[in-house]
Write a structure and sequence with these properties.
It is a single chain. The chain has 4 domains: 9-155 and 232-298, Vaccinia Virus protein VP39 (Rossmann fold, 3-Layer(aba) Sandwich); 159-223, no CATH class; 312-384; 399-472, no CATH class. The protein has 19 helices and 17 strands. The chain has helices at residues 9-12, 25-34, 56-64, 77-89, 105-108, 128-141, 157-172, 178-193, 201-214, 218-223, 235-244, 273-288, 340-351, 359-362, 366-377, 402-409, 428-436, 443-447, 458-467; strands at 46-50, 69-74, 95-99, 114-119, 142-153, 248-252, 292-298, 315-318, 321-322, 328-330, 333-335, 357-358, 381-384, 399-400, 414-416, 422-424, 471-472. Helix 4 (77-89) crosses helix 16 (402-409), helix 7 (157-172) crosses helix 9 (201-214) and helix 8 (178-193) runs antiparallel to helix 9. 45% of the residues are buried. The protein binds S-adenosylmethionine.
Length: 473
């Protein structure tokens, strides 16, 4: 990539933007519904991604829902050029990307013109006036039924990251060349992470932080703590800024925090529910040394009392695997579900993944819904407004997703799936197979094309792709 005039740090070193499940409008829809609001169905929504880099997160949504109207912008001309290349290779007709400045974007996008507005990884990494403009823009473009997502490095954990930033900038801040800078950061962190004999608790925390940073890709190391701006935010300040612009804190979109904006199920109604949830969430931030937040905003007042009926007609997808001892596993977590009828239903739902099942079919009483909501808060299951927008079985003329083929065509190896995940596919024969499955050929015809997959294995390989949400209807 060449460096354009007015190059930003993100033009010099491309940010490895990917898809972010926590920004997925299905998730935002479910949380808004739980608050008694009337969000727009994602498949027909107008979606804006602010500072989206290549906006691949948005492209994945556009590929998933051909009926949505997806817009994204970023200040980095290189990032947007790459996003446009992917969108064009994928023939995504419902995407418009632009090189735009957050401070000017209100001139491009009319008031109330989006139902979902996403600003991931922007708010704490820009100067104060751009941060203020990000909130003002979100409020300006968000429709009355809309949900806005703003993530940021949070306090008080941000203090720890700021200590690392200060030390790093002091040690290597004079190095301008990106490669040399990244190498110097790694050297510094490797040395810093080494335990010392008299480490107190803070030193141990910082050494752990250095370890964590070493796990990041080079480009993330280059930008996150070491970019020109790094201003972790207090939840209260973010909420107050939203309020000053006419936005109301809904809840957090992150794992464990999705019920931050709701009153505990058995709690008495406080005089001021908005203040009660904000106070509890802030205290939780202090207690957990919170360092990242993903705050949702709305324009209509949410009802903060949990009414499970509001989610009863949603759909569920689950990756939890049942084990021989009856418990479930999700990543390294072991989950026990005491109600055997519900456990069985969840086992059956997981067997269908990435397809979804209607909650009405599996959760026959409020106690079940309550368990499912907790599982959702932990990200063990996901809730959706309806069935999956991709097929459960291969069609007569199998067709891989447009974005899958577009990304393959321009040489990307990490492909976006239709369930808003990513999958690394480097094997040439699998890439050839997915390209050949373009909806014009039967399985038998694909088998004769010499993709490198043995003809007799073609059906099984395509079926496996279907089970990975790589195929469209
Ligand atoms: C940390 S990156 C995050 C990118 C992407 N949203 C993600 O989470 O992977 C911050 C992004 O904000 C963009 N940005 C910074 N200032 C901006 C501005 N004034 N207008 C538009 N985009 C801006 C940068 O170019 C960069 O792509």
């Amino acid at each position: 990539m060449t460096t354009p005039p007015n190059a930003t740090p993100y033009d010099r070193v491309a940010y490895p933007t990917t898809v972010f499940p926590q920004t997925h409008p299905d998730r935002l829809f479910a949380l808004a519904r739980l608050a008694g609001l009337d969000p727009v169905l994602p498949q027909e929504a107008r979606i804006l991604e602010i500072g989206g880099g290549t906006c691949v997160n948005l492209l994945a949504m556009a590929a998933m829902w051909p009926g949505c109207d997806a817009h994204g912008f970023d200040l980095s001309a290189n990032a947007i050029a790459r996003g446009q290349e992917i969108a064009e290779a994928s023939s995504l007709a419902n995407v418009t990307l632009a090189v735009e400045d957050i401070c000017e974007a209100h001139l491009r996008y009319p008031a109330g013109s989006f139902d979902y507005v996403i600003a991931h990884g922007v708010y704490a990494w820009v100067p104060d006036h751009v941060r203020a403009a990000t909130m003002a823009l979100t409020a300006h473009v968000l429709s009355d039924r809309g949900v806005g997502f703003i993530s940021y490095n949070a306090m008080p954990g941000g203090h720890v990251r700021k200590i690392m930033r200060e030390m790093l900038l002091d040690a290597i801040g004079h190095i301008d060349d990106p490669e040399e800078r990244i190498a110097a950061v790694r050297d510094f962190l490797e040395d810093y992470a080494r335990p010392r004999e008299r480490d107190d608790l803070l030193a141990k925390t910082l050494r752990q932080q250095a370890e964590n940073m070493l796990l990041r890709p080079d480009a993330v190391l280059f930008h996150d703590e070491l970019g020109p701006f790094f201003n972790p935010q207090r939840l209260r300040d973010v909420v107050a800024e939203g309020q000053a612009n006419g936005l109301i804190f809904l809840t957090d979109a992150g794992r464990n925090r999705q019920l931050d904006g709701f009153l505990p199920e058995d709690a008495a109604q406080p005089d001021d529910p908005d203040e009660a949830v904000l106070d509890a969430a802030s205290r939780d931030d202090y207690a957990s040394l919170r360092y990242f937040r993903q705050t949702l905003f709305v324009k209509q007042p949410p009802d903060r009392s949990i009414d499970l009926d509001r989610i009863a007609n949603l759909w569920l997808s689950s990756k939890m695997r049942r084990q021989d001892d009856g418990t479930f596993k999700h990543g390294d977590d072991v989950i026990e579900i005491k109600d055997e009828a519900l456990a069985l239903a969840l086992e059956q739902a997981a067997a269908l993944y990435p397809q979804r099942v209607a909650l009405a079919q599996i959760a026959s009483d409020p106690a079940h819904l309550s368990v499912i909501l907790k599982l959702c808060t932990e990200w063990y299951v996901s809730l959706h407004p309806g069935p999956a927008p991709f097929p459960a079985a291969l069609s007569d003329r199998p067709c891989s997703g447009v974005l899958v083929r577009g990304m393959l065509e321009i040489g990307e190896t990490t492909l976006c799936t239709l369930d808003h995940g990513v999958l690394k596919i480097e094997q040439p024969e699998l890439r050839a197979l997915l390209m050949a499955a373009d909806g014009t050929r039967s399985v038998a015809e694909i088998a004769t094309l010499g993709t490198g997959i043995p003809p007799e294995d073609t059906l099984a390989a395509l079926t496996a792709c279907c089970a990975k949400a790589l195929m469209q209807a």
